[in-house]
Write a structure and sequence with these properties.
Layout: E1 2-11, E2 16-28, E3 31-35, E4 41-46, E5 50-55, E6 61-66, E7 70-77, E8 80-93, E9 97-106, E10 109-122
Antiparallel strand pairs: 1-2, 1-10, 2-3, 3-4, 4-5, 5-6, 6-7, 7-8, 8-9, 9-10
Length: 124
């Protein structure tokens, strides 16, 4: 099903908000796919037991956020792959809004704290 997608990213540590995407996409059950304005592809799988965020290809990332416990993340670049530890703090899914709040965890505590909100509007 074709949808309109608006993704807001909140950096909870820096207290900033940016619009990452405002575009059309495809919604199939628990999977949402769309492209940012720079042409970077996003695939979001919003399952009952985990959320998976995939962004880009050669310079991209994959973030796995299980419902319970720690997850993993990988950032890919031409220079190699960086591995991360993640923690899902909150997720919520309604017909017109998906929300995910998570942290990237370092040895001394949270390194990053993000909240992503996808506003999804069905198209005729």
């Amino acid at each position: 099903m074709k949808v309109m997608v608006r993704l807001l990213q909140y950096d909870m540590q820096e207290k900033t908000e940016i619009v990452v995407a405002d575009t059309s996409g495809i919604l199939r059950g628990d999977k949402l796919s769309y492209f940012e304005k720079e042409g970077i592809r996003h695939d979001i799988l919003f399952g009952d037991d985990q959320v998976v965020l995939k962004r880009g290809e050669s310079f991209g990332s994959e973030v796995y956020l299980p419902q319970f416990g720690r997850g993993t993340g990988q950032v890919h670049s031409p220079y190699g792959t960086m591995r991360l530890e993640t923690q899902l703090l909150h997720k919520e899914k309604t017909a017109d809004r998906w929300t995910v709040e998570y942290q990237i965890v370092g040895t001394g505590g949270p390194v990053s704290h993000m909240k992503l909100v996808w506003y999804i509007t069905m198209q005729a």
